[in-house]
């Protein structure tokens, strides 16, 4: 795919229009809308922050029956506004059921009962392994991050995993400094060898586009660019030689109803 | 049978220098008043255990009470970093902090084993991550029936567990509801326990979804109205999300942190109902 002069052509020859300038939405809004669209129904184990916002947007738009599960033990939470923490009172007040923390991990997550795990990341690598623990060496870190929380077992045991993370060379690295949550380890076959029963990350949604694992190599490749974003820009924001998938496409821009629902969740402000 | 006594007395009886102490409460019902009393009493060399250290352990660590931290997620939920925790790990201020780091599933199961009188717990977890490389208390174990390789973590049996609940009766029977986290497991796993409550009532009325801890498994109960702030007690208060956001600026800087602790914790007395 080439990109010049504000227009680009996909490998299928279809003309891609760049977004109107100035855009009527932000890159973060495009990312959140694209992430929400990937949640079609069933149950979703939701991390706090960007995943929680996108999951709540999905429930407010095309997936009203999406069952939101937070690690605080709230199953089927239906908050009016996205909570600040995974344990805000509104999650318990609106849940179908509230269970203890050992129960949410042992009875609900561990057996593979939950369809989608929805995670953020500080670093993610070409095999979709996630680091939320440290930047730099573990014993003498440059940055001490919060750590694992529920993520390692969410990444292992949910039917599949969706990751939402802003794309930059700092975040998209060749190898993560610390494997907090396993994507595809060192490549094909690692999940099976490790006994991880979920299918692992199927989609990584960023503010620039969408990445998916190559079906053969498990390496993350670019399948979508958001409107106005060039392949060169996505490559410059990635710490490995980012490949474009055959049939690289442009993401559908946010529809008015999607933006309205998102802004209602974020208090009318552009996130 | 639990005795109902003032908070300062309960903390003095139960928490000693060098103890392992678990203050639990998963976002909800975090025992802040008890944590502040530990800081006021100047305890040192504690092993602090908590799934989500939250601001209360940021405060205990920043005030030099901790030697070691056993935890699974050390952030300010929805806001960012715990700056005192980061400063201790990255710069050894005010003292070096040893960390024993787990996943939520690992610690939750370690409490379950502790409450169950078992030496360890088994789970599907940690496999392929770098956590077992750095955390000695995560080991592979083979299922004796299927041969499958799983993960074991040793039981957590704290010297003291401290939790906050909505209410207790005069006999020290405790009732909590809403998000109940791992509090029941932490209390049953611990050698000694303290439950702070919003109020002591004549009789506990049934409440949907409530967990009841009988007084005979608890050492002390102390009345501490508002004692979970800036966390919350469902039915009594809501989470003070504004304070969680404000803490980021307060704790980012050592001086502003110490000034805040001096004004809001050190020079205040525990509530004495």
Report on the architecture of this protein.
The complex is a heterodimer of chains A (271) and B (273). The two termini of chain A are 30 Å apart. Chain A is α/β, with parallel strands linked by helices and 271 residues long. Chain A is globular. Chain A contains 8 helices and 18 strands. Chain A has a 10-stranded mixed sheet with strand order 7-6-5-4-8-13-15-16-17-18, with helices on both faces. A 3-stranded antiparallel sheet of chain A has the order 1-2-3, with no helix packed on it. A 3-stranded mixed sheet of chain A has the order 10-9-14, with no helix packed on it. Chain B is of the alpha/beta class and 273 residues long. Chain B has 9 helices and 15 strands. In chain B, the strands form 3 sheets. In chain B, strands 1, 2, 3, 4, 7, 11, 12, 13, 14 and 15 form a 10-stranded mixed sheet that branches. In chain B, strands 8-10-9 form a 3-stranded antiparallel sheet, with helices on one face. A two-stranded antiparallel ribbon of chain B has the order 5-6. The chains are: A alpha/beta (271), B alpha/beta (273). Chains A and B meet through helix 3, helix 4, strand 12, helix 5 and helix 6 of A and helix 4, helix 5, helix 6 and helix 8 of B. Chain A: GO terms for molecular function: CoA-transferase activity.
């Amino acid at each position: 795919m080439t990109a010049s002069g504000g227009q680009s052509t996909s490998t299928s020859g279809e003309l891609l229009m760049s977004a109107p300038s100035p855009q009527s939405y932000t890159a973060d809004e495009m990312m959140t809308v694209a992430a929400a669209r990937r949640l079609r129904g069933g149950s979703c184990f939701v991390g706090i922050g960007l995943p929680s916002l996108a999951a709540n947007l999905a429930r407010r738009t095309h997936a009203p029956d999406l069952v939101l599960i937070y690690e605080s033990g709230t199953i089927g939470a239906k908050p009016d506004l996205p909570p600040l923490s995974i344990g805000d009172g509104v999650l318990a007040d609106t849940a179908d059921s509230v269970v203890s923390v050992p129960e949410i991990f042992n009875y609900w997550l561990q057996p593979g009962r939950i369809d989608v795990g929805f995670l953020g990341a500080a670093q993610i690598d070409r095999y979709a392994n996630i680091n939320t623990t440290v930047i730099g060496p573990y014993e003498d870190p440059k940055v001490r991050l919060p750590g694992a929380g529920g993520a390692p077992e969410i990444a292992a045991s949910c039917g599949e995993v969706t990751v939402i993370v802003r794309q930059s060379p700092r975040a998209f690295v060749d190898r993560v400094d610390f494997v907090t949550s396993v994507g595809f380890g060192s490549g094909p076959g690692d999940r099976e060898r490790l006994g991880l029963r979920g299918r692992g990350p199927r989609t990584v949604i960023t503010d620039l586009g969408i990445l998916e694992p190559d079906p053969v190599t498990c390496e993350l490749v670019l399948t979508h660019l958001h409107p106005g974003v060039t392949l060169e820009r996505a490559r410059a924001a990635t710490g490995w030689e980012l490949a474009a998938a055959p049939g690289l496409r442009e993401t559908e821009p946010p529809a008015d109803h999607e933006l309205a629902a998102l802004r209602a969740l974020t208090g009318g402000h552009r996130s | 049978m639990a005795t109902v006594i003032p908070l300062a007395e309960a903390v003095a009886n139960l928490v000693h220098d060098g103890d392992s102490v678990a203050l639990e409460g998963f976002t909800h019902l975090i025992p802040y008043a008890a944590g502040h009393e530990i800081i006021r009493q100047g305890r040192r060399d504690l092993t602090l255990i908590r799934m989500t250290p939250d601001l209360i352990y940021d405060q205990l660590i920043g005030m030099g009470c901790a030697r070691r931290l056993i935890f699974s997620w050390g952030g300010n939920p929805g806001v960012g970093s715990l700056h005192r925790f980061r400063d201790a790990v990255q710069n050894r201020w005010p003292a070096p902090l040893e960390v024993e780091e787990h996943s939520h599933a690992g610690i939750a199961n370690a409490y379950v084993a502790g409450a169950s009188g078992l030496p360890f717990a088994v789970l599907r977890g940690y496999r392929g991550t770098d956590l077992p490389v750095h955390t000695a208390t995560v080991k592979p174990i083979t299922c004796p029936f299927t041969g499958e390789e799983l993960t074991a973590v040793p039981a957590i049996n704290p010297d003291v567990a401290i939790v906050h609940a909505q209410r207790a009766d005069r006999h020290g029977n405790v009732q909590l509801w809403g998000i109940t986290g791992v509090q029941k497991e932490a209390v049953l796993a611990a050698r000694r326990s303290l439950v702070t409550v919003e109020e002591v009532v004549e009789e506990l009325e049934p409440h949907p979804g409530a967990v009841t801890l009988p007084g005979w498994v608890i050492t002390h109960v102390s009345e501490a109205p508002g004692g979970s702030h800036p966390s919350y007690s469902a039915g009594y208060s809501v989470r003070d999300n504004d304070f969680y956001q404000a803490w980021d600026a307060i704790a980012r800087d050592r001086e502003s942190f110490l000034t805040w602790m001096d004004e809001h914790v050190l020079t205040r007395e525990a509530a004495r109902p």
